[in-house]
C-alpha cells in the first residue's frame, strides 16, 4: 500500500522513479479506507533529503500511511527554500489539537551542544510531552532519541571526544520481541553522532528495555515499557552515500574527520561505499508501523486523547 503525500512534494517523483508506491491526495480521497495518520517532525537541515529517506522506508509497508510534515520554527533554512517549507510543512499550533497514529522525530546536527543551549529546546520538550497523549507511538531518531531519553526519563548523555561515524555490527539482546521479528542475530547500522548514553544506565532503568546494542556504538534500540516510545540512536534511514556526503562536507569545511568505519572497502574513501543496512532499516520501520502503531492504535483517533485524559 502507498504513502500518501502531496503530488508536488519533491520526494514524490524520486520515489516513483524507484517503483515505490506513493499516492496523491486526489486518489487517496477516492478510497474508502482509514489510513494511518503519521506526523514527521523534521529537524535536519536538508529537509528534502530527509523527507525522501523516511518516505522511502514508510513506502515499503503494506499499510496505507497519510503523512504530514511538521517544522519546529519559521526561521529560514540554509538548505531548503522558504517556498518548500511554506507549501509542505505545518506549524505546531496547526496540529496541537490533532491525534496521530504515529510520530517520527528526526535527528538534528546538534550533537556537541548541551540540550538547554539549543535555541528550540523548550519547543522540543513541549512536542515530546504532547506526543505522549496525542500519538499512539513515537519513533525518535539519533539526536531526538537522546533528547527524549533526557526529557522523559532524566537520562543524560555524555559528549565524546571523537565522533562515532560509520557502519557498526549490532546484536539482538532479546528474542521473540515483535519489533525485532525477522531480524538476524547480528546486523549492521550507520551511526553519525558525538554523544553517547550509558548502556548500563539504560539497562538498569525499570521503564526501559534495550533491544539491540553494539560493542562500538552502544545501545541502538531502546523501547519504553508500554511500547509507546522507540528510541533509535543510529540512522537506519541513511542512503548509501549519506555518510560519504557528511565526510566530504566536513573535509571541505576545513575539518579533519575520521574516515567512516566499516563503510568503504579497505577503509579507502576513494572507493564506492558499501551499503549493508537497507534491509534492516526497512524491516525496522515496517515492524514499528505494524506492531507499535497499526496493532495498537484505535480506529477512532479521537478516543486516543480521551483515554489519556
Automatic annotation (TrEMBL):
Keyword Transferase: yes
Name of the protein described by the UniProt record: Homoserine O-succinyltransferase
GO terms, biological process: L-methionine biosynthetic process from homoserine via O-succinyl-L-homoserine and cystathionine
Species the sequence originates in: Ferrimonas sediminum
Enzyme class: transferase
Site (Important for substrate specificity): 192
Positions of region (Disordered): 248-275
Site features described as Important for acyl-CoA specificity, chain residue numbers: 111
UniProt entry keywords in alphabetical sequence: Acyltransferase, Amino-acid biosynthesis, Cytoplasm, Methionine biosynthesis, Transferase
Location of this chain's protein in the cell: Cytoplasm
NCBIfam families in UniProt: metA
Entry's Gene Ontology cellular component terms: cytoplasm
Task of the protein: Transfers a succinyl group from succinyl-CoA to L-homoserine, forming succinyl-L-homoserine.
Binding, substrate: 163, 192, 249
PANTHER family linked: HOMOSERINE O-SUCCINYLTRANSFERASE (PTHR20919)
Amino acid at each position: 500500500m502507498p504513502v500518501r503525500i502531496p503530488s508536488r512534494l519533491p520526494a514524490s517523483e524520486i520515489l516513483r522513479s524507484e517503483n515505490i508506491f506513493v499516492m496523491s491526495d486526489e486518489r487517496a480521497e477516492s478510497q474508502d479506507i482509514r489510513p494511518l495518520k503519521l506526523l514527521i517532525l523534521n529537524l535536519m537541515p536538508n529537509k528534502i533529503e530527509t523527507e525522501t529517506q523516511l518516505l522511502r522506508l514508510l513506502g515499503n509497508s503494506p499499510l496505507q500511511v497519510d503523512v504530514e510534515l511538521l517544522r519546529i520554527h519559521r526561521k529560514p533554512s540554509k538548505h531548503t527554500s522558504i517556498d518548500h517549507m511554506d507549501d509542505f510543512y505545518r506549524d505546531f499550533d496547526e496540529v496541537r489539537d490533532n491525534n496521530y497514529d504515529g510520530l517520527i522525530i528526526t535527528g538534528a546536527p546538534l550533537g556537541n551542544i548541551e540540550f538547554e543551549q539549543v535555541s528550540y529546546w523548550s519547543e522540543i520538550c513541549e512536542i515530546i510531552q504532547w506526543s505522549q497523549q496525542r500519538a499512539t507511538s513515537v519513533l525518535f531518531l539519533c539526536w531526538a532519541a537522546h533528547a527524549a531519553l533526557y526529557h522523559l526519563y532524566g537520562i543524560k548523555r555524555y559528549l565524546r571526544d571523537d565522533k562515532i561515524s560509520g557502519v557498526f555490527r549490532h546484536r539482538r539482546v532479546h528474542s521473540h520481541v515483535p519489533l525485532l521479528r525477522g531480524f538476524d542475530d547480528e546486523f549492521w547500522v550507520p551511526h553519525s553522532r558525538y554523544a553517547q548514553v550509558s548502556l548500563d544506565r539504560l539497562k538498569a532503568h525499570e521503564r526501559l528495555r534495550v533491544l539491540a546494542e553494539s560493542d562500538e556504538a552502544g545501545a541502538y534500540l531502546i523501547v519504553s515499557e508500554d511500547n509507546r516510545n522507540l528510541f533509535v540512536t543510529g540512522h537506519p534511514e541513511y542512503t548509501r552515500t549519506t555518510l560519504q556526503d557528511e565526510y566530504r562536507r566536513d573535509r571541505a569545511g576545513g575539518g579533519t574527520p575520521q574516515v567512516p568505519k566499516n563503510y568503504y572497502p579497505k577503509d579507502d574513501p576513494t572507493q564506492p561505499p558499501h551499503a549493508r543496512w537497507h534491509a534492516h532499516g526497512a524491516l525496522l520501520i515496517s515492524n514499528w508501523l505494524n506492531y507499535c502503531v497499526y496493532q495498537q492504535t484505535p480506529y477512532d483517533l479521537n478516543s486516543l486523547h480521551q483515554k489519556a485524559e
